[in-house]
Amino acid sequence: xxxxxxxxxxxxxxxxxxxxxxxxxxxxxxxxxxxxxxxxxxxxxxxxxxxxxxxxxxxxxxxxxxxxxxxxxxxxxxxxxxxxxxxxxxxxxxxxxxxxxxxxxxxxxxxxxxxxxxxxxxxxxxxxxxxxxxxxxxxxxxxxxxxxxxxxxxxxxxxxxxxxxxxxxxxxxxxxxxxxxxxxxxxxxxxxxxxxxxxxxxxxxxxxxxxxxxxxxxxxxxxxxxxxxxxxxxxxxxxxxxxxxxxxxxxxxxxxxxxxxxxxxxxxxxxxxxxxxxxxxxxxxxxx
Length: 288
Fold this sequence. Notes:
Strand content: 5-15%
CATH superfamily of the largest domain: Response regulator
Radius of gyration: 22 Å
CATH topology of the largest domain: Rossmann fold
Order of helices and strands: HHHHHEEHEHEHEHEHEHEH
Number of strands: 8
Strand order of the largest sheet: 5-4-6-7-8
CATH architecture of the largest domain: 3-Layer(aba) Sandwich
Number of helices: 12
Number of domains: 3
């Protein structure tokens, strides 16, 4: 007696939706997602966009609007990872990221995205072909990573050296304790000018956490100075803001921030965000 066929999830969706011909549809569970979509569309006579609506309704998810991709969300996921997982970040907040996918039950992709971004993942559904085209357009000009020199061994996250910049002593003390408890080496700066001096005298650092609102020099001005200096242009920066404002988030990303967190900082989430930024930087194409 043969082994029963374990059907691809899209077969179950098609049958539950009552699509014509779905009862005779057979696709093995290990079939590639794009192939499963194509076969389902041919067998049921349903166009890809309508099938996306059926899949989204079945899993109670939105249909992705691939024409609206926020730059700061896209920056959260390096191009090679987006291409590998066939996903596209659409929007993000301090705590979550909305991602277009053709495989809404892809647990591996969800775990990978969450680990890299440090955020919870909310899937939205898109047909594979349209999604692939949108990914290609969003990441146009961003190459696959080049092979790194063998002598450049990756640094352990636990040994990363971090500079905490904040004009509030209590905030600096909290972030220092949280980071040191996670194994990082931490130094502090009480304002922007001091941070620039520390970086000049005691750099390089592996990451900088930067408060946005400081009296002597605003955080965004410090960030722009960092990005205009060749020695600090590539140092990852996480900015702490007092409000969650999409327009402000976009301004920070355009100024060169790698990510942002909203105060008051949640320590476990903050550490995840730092880890995520370090991972994203380590997976970026060499030399970029």
